[in-house]
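Aim 2, interim progress. The first record below pairs a target sequence with its structure tokens.
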Amino acid sequence: MVTKREDKTTIAATAKCFVPLLDYQREDVESRDRFRWNCWSRQAGKSFTKALRRVLRGILRRRNQVFLSAGERQSRELMAKARQHCQVLKIATEWVDSDYFSGTSFKQLELRLPGGVKVIGLPANPQTARGFSGDLFLDEFAMHADDREIWAAMFPTLLLGDGELDVASTPKGIKNTFARLRDNPEFGHSTVTLPDAVAQGLDVDIDQLRRSMGDEQLYRQEFLCEFIDESTAFLTHAQIGACEDAGLERQTPLSVLAGEKEDLFVGVDIGRRHDLTVVWVVARRGDALVTRSVIEIRGETFRSQSQRIGEVLLLRNVRRCCIDAGGIGMQLAEAAQEDFGRHKVECVTFTAGLKTEMASRLRIAVEDRAIRIPADEAIRNDWHSLERRVSPSGRIVLDSSRRDGHHADRFWAAALAVYAASDDPGAAESMTIRKLRYDRRGIW
């Protein structure tokens, strides 16, 4: 049990004995910087290190610790790390899975430590950032939607009682608050690339990771901590982040979707061996389209894919579905249309002009914040991978060459869903699932 009489040296020594740390992690845990900015590679242990640092600092300073993460899933994972540290260090704790935060759809998690200290985990939102006093950790801050509003909401609370602030993330473009803080002289700065971490003992095969990723620019951003210029990106990280909703689940069970009162619209981008098949479901709520489920199918047979797509289309509140009918998608699209009718399923063959139109519809929805998506890193990177290029003939071409072997599957599935919702087909008149069967005795 760690008591309030134990000083910094004792607690730090205890942490060293029971929690294995690499040199750069130990330096961060023991840092006395009031404001600290960490730009660390993926897999370098940001959340692990920061959770330990803030638990120890909370006990030493007798101050509550507030963790803001990009989404509810990330919040739970970060709080689980803090709880694990307390268990290893034999710190008595009480775990509280609180009710929804007042006025929002976000859950507040609490870890209660000795001396009345609380570690509070919340999904990032300007509403949740207000009203708390204590030290603050902004986890993966470059990925927070409304990061500027969050910054304005929480920074004044740190000025009272000598509050501390840790900001950690991998880069996500140059037009966000995290990128702007890299030159702020008030912060202690720490940048750790993957090669830096490996040189200090992290057990990762860099060459294998680089080859398997198959995307040099994304590798440089995620593992070499480079702030990539977004001038050619069709959607910037800031634009994508602005339409993220930390309260949305990435995948909603079909039984829950069946009970939705709103109309549902579906987009399906077909893949087979190298690409994903993505089924993107949105609900119309007022003037906005809210993502209700993103179903990803990898490496399954066409028969299995057809079955899973059919399970979604069987939902009575699905009004319209647009399916990629180009190349390998033709058979699945035609089969779905035959089973569910032309009024419900539209086969879409991509042409350069149609792709531009569909991408533009989605971009307008993003700019107007008329579409809400889960705060999910795979979705964010996929959407951001689409680039605008100029062909030798001077024509604007949309391409996703950064992701070698992939074609922005999640982006195009979402674009198809927005396209499906753009022209309301009206009420369904009929739906045929399979051939009708009659009783042998002639009674139907």
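The second target in this work package is listed in the same format:
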Amino acid sequence: MNLRKIIIAIVYIFIFLFYFNEQGFSKNIKHNDSSTNLNIINIPFWKKFNDEVLLNSILMVYQNNNDLKISQNKIKEAQRIVKISLSNELPYIGFDGYINRAFHSSDEYKGDFIIPDYHQSRFLLPLTMNFELDIWGQNRLKTKAKKKELLMLEEDQRAFYISIISSFAINYYNLVKIDKLIDVQNKLINNQKQILNAYKDKEEFGTAIQNDIIREEKKINILNYELNDLKEKQEVLQNQLKVYLSDRSFDKINRIDFENINFDPKIPNKIEFSQLEQRPDYKKVQHKIEKIGLDVKIAKRDFLPKFTILGTLGFNAYQFNNIFSKSSRLVNLGVMPSLDIFDGGRKFQILKINKYRYDSTINEYEKIILASIQETNDALYNLKSTHENLELALKRYNLDNEDLYLINKKINYGIANNIDLFKKQEELLLSEKHKISIKVNEIISYINLYKALGGVEPIENL
């Protein structure tokens, strides 16, 4: 086989190795593509809210939110870092050319041999190759450790996705609640104005005093203050939702009417520990334990000798017309063993540091288990409590309705007046406000439980 064929073969090997690194190895890397990210936000869960406006808005957040796009780029960056580690497992082939001309100068001495008026040209055109033999699997372990770092980062991204989408949904329902509360507040103000007018009418007949008028006017002022506060919260929520949507063209946030909410959460009796295994922090710390375990192995194998294959193939000529001649061929191959005899204890200290980190991560794992149990149990208790309060609020609202019905009957019999009627209407409207708040709070509590479970729908216990 002549030298030309050898060079061509090396070039083909180089192209193959490059393609293998970019395509073959990359198949082992878990990619967070758009379909994977869409699974993170759990569209089937949000469909159960029977709210197309909410669902479309969530998809819009997924597509447009700037923070989510930033997190996606961080994942892509981490994937490239893994590929860099993979490339370190492959041979390096490079070209290090050298062209030199020593012009006429003084005599050159080579021992007793003299070259008068020395001048010389040199043309060195080599392909160089070096490849560290991964006898102990240290480089493979480094790549595995980088993959674990990627998996940890993906769990951070998953937690961020769940947090962003859940926060958007919570603000969305708070805005729906505020819309309805503003409507009821306007009714309260109109009702209070009727009470004030009724007292003014009584004052004309001498059956009411000025203090009654002042008291009812003060109530109107308080109700107007509460209305302004609700409007401010409405504006703030709309602005926050616009940021989530990351679209400056939005003038109005679309949302469902409170009366069209059609969702009753299925409340589990308890949370099984197995349901916590999908939490991002739980899975991340598992990957972290595995990653630091690999770091310990890498630190141990760093004490062992390394073997590197070195090779050169090319031409070394001293005259330009002889560059590609047989006499100018340059071929060498060798193995370079290396072992650190003394490094001041650096490798030993690195090993001890990684062992300490491993022990700390085990404790972190135990802490996350306890924290996840507490968080989910707190969220479940809050959901149950809110549900019980909703039942009480509905009962109170129904009783106020019955009371209003009885007042109407008393008016027909002449044993009650319009002021009594307006007062009962006020009680009913206040009960309605309480019912609205509790109803939306129940939905928000359910979303918080979903978030605490790591973006997994709570399982209803039989």
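The chain has two domains: 31-88+134-304+339-452, 101-133+310-338. This observation will shape the mutagenesis plan for the next reporting period.
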